[in-house]
Design brief:
The complex is a heterodimer. By secondary structure, chain A is an alpha/beta fold. Chain A folds into two domains: 149 residues, Rossmann fold (3-Layer(aba) Sandwich); 65 residues, no CATH class. In chain A, 42% of the residues lie in helices and 9% in strands. By secondary structure, chain B is α/β, with parallel strands linked by helices. Chain B has one domain: Beta Polymerase, domain 2, CATH 3.30.460. Helix content of chain B is 28%, strand content 25%. Chain B has five helices and seven strands; from the N terminus they run αββαββββαβαα. In chain B, β1 and β2 form a beta hairpin. In chain B, α1 runs antiparallel to α2. The longest helix of chain B has 12 residues. The termini of chain B are far apart. Classes of the chains: A alpha/beta, B alpha/beta. Chains A and B meet through α3 and α7 of A and α4 of B.
Amino acid sequence: MTTNIPITSDPNTDIACRTPDMQERSLLRKVIDRIADRCRSRSLFILHYCTGCGAIELPPTITSRFDSERLGIQPMVTPRQADILLITGYLSVKTLKRVILTYEQMSAPKYVVGMGSCTINGGMYWHSYATIKRLQEYLPVDMYMAGCMPRPEAIQQGFLQLIDNIDKGKAIAWQDYYQQYDKYLANQQALFGPDWHTPTDVIAEARHYELFTEKTTGEHTALLAKYASKYVTLQHEEHEEIVK
Amino acid sequence: MSNQQLPEILAAVFREIPNLVFTEQTARRLRVELRPDTLPALLELLKGRAGYLHLSAISCVDWPELDEFELVYHLWSYEVKTLVSAHIYIPKNPGRYVSVYDIFTPAAFFERDIHEMFGVYFEGSPDMERFILTEWTGPPPMLKSFSSLGYVEETFKWEQYSPDWLKEIQANGGGIVE
């Protein structure tokens, strides 16, 4: 079948193809973001990373006793379809690697919720050589739920607060990961060694979301380019600097 | 406890091993101490003659005041129904011992674990690579000479947290209980 629809080439005559000016664009974007945030906050999928003991509080939270689905929150099995990454308790250095891999696979906007004292400052595992202490050094955390463990009521309260934050556009910690990727990567490299990398090209994603700042790249992402050049796309001038 | 009270099958095995001392800790629980070079023979005899098919675990103890590691082999027989814990002491330096993988296959995991946590090398064990602590580059962490708290304070950052609301509570005599 052949089509004979005429294509207008002049962008200023066709309303659909017109390029909005920056002022108009930002206003439009604000309205759309506002609507999207409202919708998003009503339908959240949790990816629960249950290596810690906090996982035991999740079944009553999610099932009929407290029923978080009435808030629009449901568990999800894959990172790519999930909105919330729920870290339920302590993370060992080994599991933190997996969490970072999982987090980077999630599509933005994404929210990290640290549940229990262990994610805040190590909790009762402060003396342990094997667990990380403060989750926010490695991933941008939107919300902590304090407690050892927080009861389902506290988790529900936290979810309600998170919903409110998303609705008001305040849950924007995921942008910080792109804006200050070098800082997060520095902390990750301090634990895993200088050759640590994930298959995700975070710098390219930062450019895609227009969140690229001068803090996105730095001396630590330069190491990334050295050890994981096949995963990282660099601007030409940056690459030449590294080659030099 | 005399040899007469032991099941004869166990007493016969113990008679074969020189310098073996055993004490009955509770009913069905025997503590056996012996020389390190005779341990493989004891395990072989227990397995072959008394039905000790189950090596439950190998434990390692780092005694800070001794220059020796204590290795404990926990064995169970479904026929004699008595737990035998065989204790040996090996010098910390060089910290090498022979593997019992050829007698009990599960020993491979226990030995690999002890190698990772205490640094004891088991000759003849099939795999002495990293087991659980794949990200770990420091000294064996279960050694008493390793300061876990020192490592944590060196590696992880601590941040003082004193928000205004907490200061108010502390001014009124409350606050965080240390």
